[in-house]
Design goal:
heterodimer, A: alpha+beta, Four Helix Bundle (Hemerythrin (Met), subunit A), 4 domains, 6-stranded antiparallel beta sheet, 4-stranded antiparallel beta sheet, B: alpha+beta, OB fold (Dihydrolipoamide Acetyltransferase, E2P), 7 strands, disordered C terminus
């Protein structure tokens, strides 16, 4: 049964290669029959990869441990859910999964563009199929999920305990959806270069795809942070770890791209820059996939040590880079800007600075992430740079972004007049100063944190004012009541107002990040009955009393659970139950933290250790001493809230407008098609 | 086009500031990856090497060398070079024992070292947990 999957994998490679060649050739020669064949190859590859993926899942469900991949990531006791997600638990499976998603997106694009963008489509299909073919080559030749071991082990090694977590099962697929979706704008950019049609059309066509990619990437990054927060057990959510950084890199260039396309649409500037940004975003997505899955750079969660793959990926990246650079050079005459920058005080300038800042952050993160490789290559000595490096560069740049988020959307195009500036920024500036002074008097003296809150007030005020102005204008003109007017405001200009919502979410996230400046931490060894107190920066005091320890066996692990009573300013405030879990198969121990969430802070409790756990479990010592680490993490809930708002705002921006008429697939073949163009997804 | 060159100058200035931040940030947070052997060689050339820069040393915990005080969370153990099994360093760490810390396990310690004293670790990481990929030998040893 499972052999079908392997056959399908080989066929997918052949069909993808075939389609890629036909697409490029047919597009050049204008041969419609060949192009059609290339487009149909996309559907075939999708069907074949789906078969392969189902076969892998079937092997997991039937516990076929003769397959090295299944034995490495599953065992008999693993739950059904984690067996299904085994498809993306390891390197080879996740590469198949990546390709599956890409072929799905590719098929969608082909379907969408049956009757439009015909001059782009041969190259779009060919580009996507080339990327697919590359992934197939890696899977088939370097990292085959159907590799059979010389013997059948009685049981598998089981899934790494840290991956047995809800967030960890949805985090990788979400990130992959984001990475792969960026292939579509890239494919359109390549087809624009190849066909020489470098006006804004490739951008407007892929606008919604870019937003879809950005949506998934943002969600994926936030899910990853949530996973790190609850599962890694050190009280933080971002470690500047290579793998985390890798997912951030395409996000940074992608975000820069989302902004700079507006300049091209409105003013015909930055044409070359946009092409470069979309190419960079795609290359960084590939880089991120490969960094996560190759273990080239040491990381807390590097997944593998398969360096063959590293070299194949590096080769692919270099080839893509050279090909893209060559194409851009070939078309260098077509990027002439239609207008020029006129003033520092203009929307164009604000967007430009925004882009420079995003790219600077990207370069700093890329530099820091790859520095162990650079230093080893050039000085023969592996040197790592730590979180202080990233904080030092990125915190000031982040503050500039925070400021620009308030300025960019409301400042005038071309050149702002003093009157325009005063009208738009008097209220926000006043608010910023009021919040800054208020917090300073209230005892917030950390300079960066204070600046963050003041700038957040500035930006949020501009957003609120924008909504208020729009609603009032509509209410007046259309005679609607305020809530209806607000709803229609969203409907009429989803992109703009959705964008504002994303900005508001981002500002709230930033406040959450700034909360780190006020973290409180304590570490204590306690006997049952003893307490520890910790003061929150908000002024109240938590008292935690270690009541008792218990233990019980669960499927594939043994749990040690401490019961800890929490009092807030002397009043009972619930209970926390941090755990230690000892897993049978891998002889590994993990900690499950106890978190008490409030709207403004988390009380975060880690059971760091239990003295003589063996004596306790054999009944000799019923009251074991345990070590606890207590943290108060102010404003962390705001990060999740801000992330949620960002996701909602993106959905508003990319939701298809209501008036789009769906065209059925069974339209008469001979009918001429003067019908309105379909928009987006 | 005087104006356009002004814009260019502003852009260059912004990039310069970023560059400055990067360079100074690097100085504060550089950490060298070494084995105990390599660290010993570096110290011979420059005895204060590991006081000036952070080092990250990967080695093995010597069986029988671990002393951990549950009450004060004071951990002391000896780290030995994995390949040669010769060069050793005494390590001191203040904090809870990492989850999978065991005698004979491979660990990475990060911190600073003053000659003649213990290696003062700011973090102790166990290496094994990060290896997600299984080798064929992992199954063979279980069979027997």
């Amino acid at each position: 049964m499972t052999q079908i999957g392997e056959v399908a994998l080989w066929l997918a490679l052949l069909v993808a290669g075939w389609g890629a060649v036909l697409g490029f050739y047919g597009g050049r020669r204008g041969r419609g029959d060949l192009v059609l064949s290339a487009e149909r190859s996309m559907f075939a590859v999708f069907a074949l990869l789906l078969t392969t993926s189902l076969a892998i899942i079937a092997a997991f469900l039937r516990s076929e441990f003769r397959y090295k991949y299944v034995a490495g990531y599953s065992n008999r006791e693993l739950g059904l859910f984690y067996k299904i997600t085994g498809l993306w638990a390891g390197q080879t499976g996740s590469l198949v999964f990546w390709a599956l998603i890409l072929s799905f997106f590719g098929s969608l694009v082909v379907l969408q563009n049956r009757r439009k963008n015909r001059e782009f489509m041969p190259y779009v299909a060919a580009t996507v199929l080339s990327v697919l073919a590359f992934f197939m080559v890696v899977v088939v030749f370097a990292s085959n999920p159907f590799e059979v071991m010389g013997f059948v082990p009685p049981d598998g090694r089981g899934l790494n305990p840290q991956l047995q977590n809800y967030w960890m099962t949805i985090h990788p697929p979400t990130l992959y959806l984001g990475f792969t979706a960026f292939t579509i704008p890239f494919a359109f950019a390549i087809s624009a270069l190849l066909s020489g049609r470098l006006d804004t059309r490739w951008i407007t066509t892929t606008r919604r795809w870019t937003l879809v990619a950005w949506f998934f990437l943002t969600c994926g990054i936030i899910f990853g942070m949530m996973w790190a927060y609850v599962e890694l057990g050190w009280g933080g959510y971002w470690f500047w770890d290579p793998v985390e950084n890798a997912s951030l890199l395409p996000w940074l260039t992608g975000t820069a791209f989302l902004h700079s396309v507006m300049i091209q649409e409105k003013r015909g500037m930055l044409k070359l820059w946009n092409v470069l940004l979309v190419i960079a975003t795609f290359l960084l997505s590939i880089f991120a996939t490969f960094l996560t899955r190759s273990g080239l750079i040491e990381s807390v969660h590097s997944f593998a040590e398969n360096t063959t793959i590293a070299f194949i990926f590096l080769g692919f990246l270099s080839a893509l880079l050279l090909a893209s650079a060559g194409l851009v050079w070939w078309r260098r005459g077509a990027f002439k800007a239609e207008s020029r920058l006129e003033s520092f005080l203009s929307r164009e300038a604000a967007f430009l600075v925004n882009n420079i800042v995003f790219i600077s952050v990207m370069f700093a993160v890329l530099w820091g992430t790859t520095f162990p490789l650079i230093s080893e290559g050039f000085f023969g000595q592996k040197i790592q740079v730590g979180p202080p490096f990233y904080d030092r560069v990125n915190v000031p740049l982040g503050l500039i972004l925070l400021f620009l988020m308030g300025v960019g959307p409301v400042i005038a195009w071309r050149k702002a007049t003093p009157r325009n500036l005063k009208r738009n920024f008097a209220a926000p500036l006043g608010m910023a100063i009021a919040v800054g002074l208020g917090l300073f008097v209230a005892g917030v003296h950390h300079p960066y944190a204070l600046l963050t809150f003041a700038l957040a007030a500035f930006t949020l005020t501009t957003i609120v004012v924008e909504f208020w102005k729009g609603t009032r204008a509509r209410a007046k003109i259309e005679g609607e009541i305020a809530p209806v007017a607000l709803l229609h405001l969203f409907e009429r200009n989803r992109r703009r107002y959705g964008g504002y919502v994303v900005h508001a979410g981002f500002v709230i996230c930033f406040c959450g990040f700034a909360g780190k400046a006020f973290n409180a931490e304590k570490q204590m060894a306690l006997r049952p009955g003893e307490s520890v107190t910790i003061a929150s920066p908000f002024g109240h005091v938590y008292e935690l009393t270690y009541q008792a320890m218990s233990w019980y066996p669960a499927t594939n692990m043994t749990k040690l659970v401490a019961t800890v009573d929490v009092k807030r300013d002397g009043r009972p405030a619930g209970m926390l139950a941090p755990e230690k879990r000892a897993y049978k198969q891998r002889e590994e121990v993990t900690s499950e933290v106890g978190i008490r969430r409030a709207w403004n802070e988390d009380l975060y409790l880690i059971m760091a250790g239990v003295a003589d756990a063996e004596r306790f479990m054999s009944g000799q010592d019923p009251r074991p001493m345990a070590t606890f680490k207590v943290l108060v993490n102010p404003l962390v809930p705001w990060i999740w809230l801000g992330g949620f708002i960002m996701a909602m705002g993106t959905l508003v921006a990319l939701w298809p407008a209501a008036e789009v008429v769906r065209v059925t697939a069974r339209a008469p073949a001979r009918a001429p098609s003067p019908r309105p163009e379909l928009v987006g997804v | 086009m005087k104006k356009q060159s002004r814009f260019l100058a502003a852009g260059v200035l912004l990039c310069g500031v970023v560059g400055y931040l990067m360079v100074t940030g690097m100085k504060d947070s550089m950490t060298y990856f070494l084995t105990p052997n390599e660290l010993a060689q570096r110290l011979m050339a420059n005895p204060s090497f590991a006081e000036e820069a952070g080092v990250r040393v990967g080695g093995r915990v010597v069986p029988g060398s671990v002393r951990f005080d549950q009450k004060t969370l004071d951990l002391r153990f000896t780290l030995v070079d994995i390949e040669t099994g010769r060069t050793t360093f005494p390590v001191h760490y203040q904090g809870p024992l990492p989850d999978t810390f065991q005698e004979g396990r491979d660990v990475v310690v990060e911190g600073r070292y003053r000659h003649g004293q213990s290696f003062e670790a700011t973090s102790v990481l166990t290496k094994c947990g990060s290896r997600y990929e299984a080798a064929e030998s992992d199954f063979k040893s279980k069979q027997s």
